[in-house]
């Protein structure tokens, strides 16, 4: 294989390019001969979301929807810790995937997964009035926040390309608890509320064999754990069905 870099230029993995060429048969197999290739330009009207697996909602719109829910909280401790962590990670949250493979492994997948669970939690709080709605939603908004540090993404595509050293050694559950704990202590969050949020993160995978450090020990933690698994299963089933005739 010969590639004339002086003629065609150089490109990195994940770069979006525009190609012109011809398809011809060779030994019974179609081959594509590149006549011209270049990086995409603004005039091409090409969005990265059209080229890589992406969720159907805009990242900023999902972010704003979640912040609007947090703004409605009467509990200032929960409002402040959620908004502080989100605002300090805004740029990443717009596009971050929720996984390298499996559920929500798409551009914007982390917020899409989070928003789906938050909507479920809002409805659960109406059905089960003994639920602490604001605690439940706060836990849902923060349960996977550690994935921002666990997953490494391609700068060009926004898709997961591997796991960080921190992600491999600690995992997103531990990272999330550490982030919530340090942020809560920095802004003066009530220690008991901080502990409840940390437990919800630690237990949201349900059972130790699924990665939880502890099992859910109160109602809001149990609801979050159930919705986390349900949303992941629904997403994977939906993806499988969409690719099946």
In short:
This protein is mainly alpha-helical and 245 residues long.
Describe this structure in words.
The protein is mainly alpha-helical and 245 residues long. The chain is built from 10 helices and 4 strands, in the order αββααααααββααα. The strands form 2 sheets. Strands 1-2 form a two-stranded antiparallel sheet. Strands 3-4 form a two-stranded antiparallel ribbon. Helix 5 packs antiparallel against helix 6 and helix 6 packs across helix 9. The longest helix is centred in the last third of the chain and has 24 residues. It is elongated, with a radius of gyration of 22 Å. The model has no long low-confidence stretch (mean pLDDT 88).
Helix-strand blueprint:
Elements: H1 5-8, E1 17-26, E2 29-39, H2 59-71, H3 76-88, H4 90-95, H5 109-127, H6 133-142, H7 147-150, E3 151-153, E4 160-163, H8 165-187, H9 191-203, H10 219-242
Antiparallel strand pairs: 1-2, 3-4
Helix pairs in contact: 2-3, 2-5, 3-6, 3-8, 5-6, 5-10, 6-9, 6-10, 8-9, 9-10
């Amino acid at each position: 294989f010969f590639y004339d870099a002086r003629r065609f230029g150089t490109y990195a993995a994940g770069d979006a390019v525009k190609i012109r060429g011809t398809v011809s048969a060779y030994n019974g197999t179609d081959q594509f001969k590149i006549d011209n290739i270049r990086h995409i330009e603004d005039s091409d009207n090409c969005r990265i979301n059209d080229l890589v697996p992406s969720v159907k909602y805009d990242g900023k719109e999902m972010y704003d929807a979640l912040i609007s829910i947090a703004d409605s909280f009467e509990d200032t401790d929960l409002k402040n810790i959620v908004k502080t962590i989100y605002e300090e990670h805004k740029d990443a949250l717009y596009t971050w995937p929720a996984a390298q493979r499996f559920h929500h492994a798409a551009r914007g997948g982390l917020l899409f997964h989070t928003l789906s669970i938050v909507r479920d939690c809002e409805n659960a709080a109406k059905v089960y009035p003994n639920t602490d709605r604001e605690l439940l939603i706060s836990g849902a908004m923060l349960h996977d926040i550690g994935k921002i540090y666990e997953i490494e993404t391609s700068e060009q595509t926004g898709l997961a390309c591997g796991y960080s050293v921190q992600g491999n050694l600690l995992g997103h559950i531990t990272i999330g608890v550490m982030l919530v704990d340090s942020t809560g202590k920095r802004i003066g969050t009530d220690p008991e509320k901080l502990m409840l949020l940390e437990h919800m993160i630690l237990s949201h995978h349900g059972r130790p064999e699924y990665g939880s450090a502890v099992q859910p020990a109160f109602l809001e933690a149990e609801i979050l754990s159930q919705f986390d698994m349900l949303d992941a299963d629904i997403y994977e089933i939906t993806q499988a069905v969409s690719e099946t005739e």
